[in-house]
Specification:
Helices cover 48% and strands 15% of the residues. By secondary structure, it is α/β, with parallel strands linked by helices.
């Protein structure tokens, strides 16, 4: 499933799911642009690690995903430095939990900007080049919350539902262009961010580690297993392959059966 000579950009890819996606694409031969926040030394180590491990070009761009002009400039920079942009993975995202009546307005605005609007701005900038070359892959990281809701996550659920709708619309617009547009909707994914929440939840609720995992985090996932970052990354690689040329407009669930009911 070679992606040699393809060029990819993955937003929110300095850690977690996004980094796993960037490395998986690089493993298949794609040059990659990584984007995100974090310690500059660690980011540079990840960038050089991709080049060393897979023999591809890896570029870092620190565009602020709340700023449309920076997003457009990042797409242009990727096209210039890599020669083209064949694959766009919209992965950047943040979360905040609160009842609607006390949900901070600035948190609502930030979540909608990063989780939804950034994907629109990136797609808007990338699509013309993909149409010109008659080949492209756009994949967005949605969530089980693109299909079902949970309380106290108004902004996140609204953004992920919107991302699923944006995916369908773009897929229809690009159906005859050689560009496919899909999204992946994982349930709980095992990342350091999730793992680091467990001790606080144990203390706050008076639960064991196993109880937090099974009765709090995985209560909605029938398999009682986390999705792994490598499983999400493998799905992205498949969607970017020629084998998935007729998969477009899809919202692919990876949630251990969460949304089956």
């Amino acid at each position: 499933m070679s992606l040699a000579k393809r060029h990819a950009l993955v937003t929110g890819s300095t850690s977690g799911i996004g980094l796993a996606i960037a490395r998986a694409l690089a493993k298949e031969g794609a040059d990659v642009v990584i984007n995100g926040m974090g310690d500059p030394t660690k980011i540079e180590a990840e960038r050089t690690g991709i080049e060393k491990d897979f023999g591809v070009r890896a570029v870092f761009n620190g565009a602020d995903m709340t700023k449309p002009a920076e997003i457009a400039a990042m797409i242009a920079d990727a096209q210039t430095k890599l020669g083209s942009l064949d694959i766009l993975v919209n992965n950047a995202g943040i979360q905040f939990v609160s009842p609607i009546e006390t949900f901070p307005i600035e948190k609502w605005d930030a979540i909608l900007a990063i989780n939804l609007s950034s994907a629109f701005h990136a797609m808007r900038a990338a699509i013309p080049g993909m149409k010109t070359q008659k080949w492209g892959r756009i994949v967005s990281t949605a969530s089980a919350h693109s299909l079902v809701a949970s309380p106290f996550k108004a902004a996140y659920v609204a953004a992920k539902h919107g991302l699923a709708g944006l995916t369908k619309t773009a897929a229809l617009e690009l159906a005859t262009s050689g560009v496919t547009v899909n999204c992946i909707s994982p349930g709980y994914v095992w990342t350091p961010l999730v793992e680091n929440q467990i001790p606080d939840t144990m203390k706050t609720r008076g639960l064991t580690r196993e109880q937090v995992i099974n009765d709090v985090l995985l209560v909605a996932q029938p398999t009682k297993q986390f999705v792994t970052v490598d499983q999400v990354a493998a799905m992205v690689v498949y969607l970017c392959s020629d084998a998935a040329a007729q998969v477009t407009g899809a919202n692919l669930s990876m949630d251990g059966g969460w949304t089956a009911a």
